[in-house]
Every structure is written in structure tokens, then in C-alpha cells.
Amino acid sequence: TVMFTKISGRIRMKLKNKKLLISLLITVVFITVFTILWKTGKDEVYYLCGNFSAGETKSNVIRQLETANLSSYTHKIDVNGSIIVFSSRLFFVTNQCIIKLDKSEKVVLASYK
Fold first, then answer.
1. In this predicted model, what pLDDT tens digit does every residue of 24-67 receive, in sequence order?
2. Which contacts qualify for 91-96: CB closer than 8 Å, 24 or more apart?
3. Neighbours of 48 (CB within 10 A)
4. Greatest distance between any 2 Cα atoms in the chain
5. What's the CA gap between 83 and 20, in Å, rounded?
6. 66 Cβ contact partners less than 8 Å away, ≥ 6 residues apart
7. How many other C-beta atoms can be found within 10 angstroms of the C-beta atom of residue 83?
8. How far is 76 from 31, CA to CA, in rounded Å?
9. Dist CA 107 CA 54 (whole Å)
10. pTM score > 0.90 for this model?
């Protein structure tokens, strides 16, 4: 319950209500931070993936991917060339960019999933 003092009008809270308010504030802060990190991680993959078009060199792709703060990439060599998979390091962001390179190490396709 909330009580008002006679003269000053200040609010006096019971200990139980203070704990509830603190718990609520911590939850709101956690959800806000989580949401910001999720959006930032997703946007980083999305916008960098949009930079790559057919014919771009592997070195240019790698140079741009190295600028990422919340994401990383793996490079796998294939019989037809190679594949770079760029994804967020945050476990709750599942989006990724798949960049296919031909044997001459030029981009054939970059797709965002």
C-alpha cells in the first residue's frame, strides 16, 4: 500500500513494494538491452550482406566483414570455389549472410537468410 505523510505529501512505500519496483526496473533494463543488442546484431549482418554484388573480389569482402563488431565469418573451400558464412556472434541472432565465390575468388551470389 502507499501512504502519504500529512504535511510533505511524500510517498512512503513498504519494503515489499520497493523490491517489486526494483525487480520491475531490472527486468525493463534487461529487455531493453537485449532488444538493442538483437537489433544491432541483425542489422550488422543485413547491411554488410547488402554491400556484396557479383564480381566483387574476396579480399574486398573480407576487408568489409572484418569491420563487424558483433559478427564473425567462416570461410569454406568448395569444389566450385568457396563459401563465406557471415553471422552474428550473439546466440539469439540467427540471421546469416551466405556469400558464394567462384574459383577466381569473385562473388557469385550474396544472400541474406
1. 999 999 999 999 998 998 999 999 999 999 999 999 999 999 99
2. 92/34, 92/38, 93/38, 93/41, 93/42, 93/45, 95/41, 95/42, 95/45, 95/46, 96/45
3. 21
4. 83
5. 51
6. none
7. 16
8. 36
9. 5
10. no
